[in-house]
Amino acid sequence: MELGAAATPLPSEIEEGVIERAKTGEPQALGAVYDWYLPRVYRYVLSRVGNVTEAEDLTEDVFLRMLGAIGDYKRTGVPFSAWLFRIARNHVVSHYRKNGVRKGQAALDEGMTDSKHDPAEIVETQMMIGEVALAVQKLPEAQRDVIALRFAGGLSIAETAQVLGKRQGNVKTLQHKAVLKLQKMLQTEPGRLTVEGQI
Q1: Residue 79: is its pLDDT beyond 70?
Q2: C-alpha distance from residue 113 to each of 52, 78, 116, 197 (Å)
Q3: Environment class of residue 100 by beta-carbon count within 10 Å: exposed (0-12), middle (13-18) or buried (19+)?
Q4: Alpha helical stretches, state H, the chain
Q5: pTM score > 0.85 for this model?
Q6: What is the CATH number of domain 12-198?
Q7: In the chain, what are the domain boundaries?
Q8: Distance between CA 27 and CA 29 in Å, rounded?
Q9: Separation CA 73–CA 162 (nearest Å)
């Protein structure tokens, strides 16, 4: 599975055209959807399961499910990203119910760090990611969902609300509470944990 950096978000009118073509089974459009969303869905799934191999398998399953259902997708107030991440979230939840295991901590994946930095920076970044991943696992489930969708999946507040079936205000509140708890758990210096500023 190739997991380079996520593609730059497209203007909604361009994405809508590609999605409409993908619904007819056009291979190039389906490939474009896969390329745009694979890194984000993979990061989200990895943040929830904590195992690279398991995350790769589950991500492929999500895209197979998407392929089977894309013909029925209708843009009735729900953007495609929210529709796809709802499939991903439901698949992860189903996976845990079926296997009866507790959600693991996020694994440190080489793809989660930037290889352009020197080795010391990479190690420091991985240590910080590890600390945050452990702290996130201690959050209540609803807050963990919001953090995973917002920061691993890269969804907006509106998209996260649609995936979770919550109001945007509720998502903002859950995110705010989660960030405050993470800051306390990590005992960070002021400004070190900057996820709050991404609302």
Answers
A1: yes
A2: 14, 31, 9, 20
A3: exposed
A4: 12-23, 27-49, 52-69, 80-99, 119-136, 141-147, 157-164, 168-186
A5: no
A6: 1.10.1740.10
A7: 12-198
A8: 6
A9: 15
